[in-house]
Input
Amino acid sequence: MKKVLIVDDEEAILKMYSVVLQDEFEVITAHNGNEGFETAKREKPDLIYLDIIMPQLNGLDVLGKLKDDKETTTIPVVLLTNLPKEASADKAKALGAADYFVKVETEPSKIAEITKQILG
Amino acid sequence: MRISFWEAATWSVVILMTLIVVSFFPWYTAENLLRYIFATSGVAAIFWYLKSRRLYRESQEKTLEIAQKQKEISAHQKTISLIFDNSADGILILDNDQIITDFSPGLEKITGYSKNEAIGKNAQELLKFSGDNSNSLLPDAMFISRSLHKKPYIRNTLMTKQGREIDVEASYTLISDPGKNNISGMAIIRDITYENELVRRDKEFIAITSHQLNTPLSIIQGYVSLIKEGKAGKVTETQMNYINEIVSALKKMIDLTNNLLSISRIEQNKIKLEKSDVNVAEIIKKIMDTFGSFAKKKNIDLICMQPKKDLLVYADQEKLIQALSNITSNAIKYTQKGKVELSVNREAGNIVFQIKDSGIGIAPEEIERIGEKFYRTQQAIDADHQGTGLGVFIAKTIIEKHGGTLAIRSVLNKGTTFVVSLPATNY
Output
């Protein structure tokens, strides 16, 4: 079973996306930027969903660290945030993000579709 | 030289008398000559007396008038000096070498320098104005030729005596002394630090609130969709009806926060367009798909004239759809019966979208205010209390960012047509 890591400081968000993924994927979660980076290094997930505004280390910094690290650089990272695309999508793409979605426009079922598409 | 009426009259009478005397009494006898001299000098004396009396009276009137004028001038001067002394805005007066010749109490308060410290100093040395490169700076700006400088009004930053940076706004004018070569400059300077701070806080508030609102909204929306999909067990028909009510209210809230976010981005000048050649027919189809059910629910015909399949517009697809959606949504919202028609044509180098409704219309005096932020017409408020007055403002901003125009034609109680005109291609 492929492993998906979701990093978000809102427990309700973690639970919500886990519900639609857990049948087909192994879902692991982290509650802030640092924890997210450490979990990614330790667990080597196949896909990471990353929020941007989080305590300790923000999502874009986590993305930068993941892409700089040999062990995690190949893992596709999808930004899942409520910052509008205009605000950070360009920056995220430049840092190597696979995609960028705004939470309020992305229902959980859509996340399930995206995950299937990326992980095949 | 002008001859006054009285002088002309005097000399006419003298000449007339001479003619009379000469015609009755031949002038060459000594006696007649004397008579003639007496008669004419008598008449002349009377007239001169009358004239000087009139002149005396006139000069007295003039003296009174001058005294009155002087009184008025001194009252006027008093008013000016009261304004100068009491205005909260600072008033700065410079001679043409930019030496400070007057410095109002308001300016003392703004800059921290006293009048005594300021008078006689070079303005540039005492008052440190700065600004971004596009701004001209005081005090130089005051003396730049008017023709070059259309608006005698600028914003600068000023370092106070205490070393604090404040934002100032200044309007200024040149004062020329007629007859002399002296030109002095006057600037009225206002401290706008607090106003700027309020504007900044306002923008920040909108940005933070809309982002903070989006987090709980996305959670509500996510869980509602999970329930709807049966992830929490089978949903009965009644439950589904209730859920749909939640979803539709939720959509309104999401639209509102998105509008607020758009506004905050517009105000911070952060709107970026990602333009490409966009198929017009596809845009129209998206709008029809989005609003079909809304129109149906209101029993309004949403009609669209199919555009040519290869019609392209050079635009940011997402934003153009947002602009046209805001207009179409209003058209349906403010139409109680009848239809809303969408059409699009190429006219010269422009792609022209028209959204025509048979709705409540806009009063002629209100048309030009449509598109102001938060502005709503009375008819619109009566028809729907919940609007925000943001939709057209956002649409207009997006259209203008594209180099296009938004025109409105309307007849009250008959309907409105919004005409969106955009450059067709990027050349």
Summary: Chain A touches chain B through 19 residues (CB under 8 Å). Helices of chain A lie at 11-21, 33-43, 59-68, 85-95, 108-119. The domain at 3-119 of chain A is CATH 3.40.50.2300 (Rossmann fold).
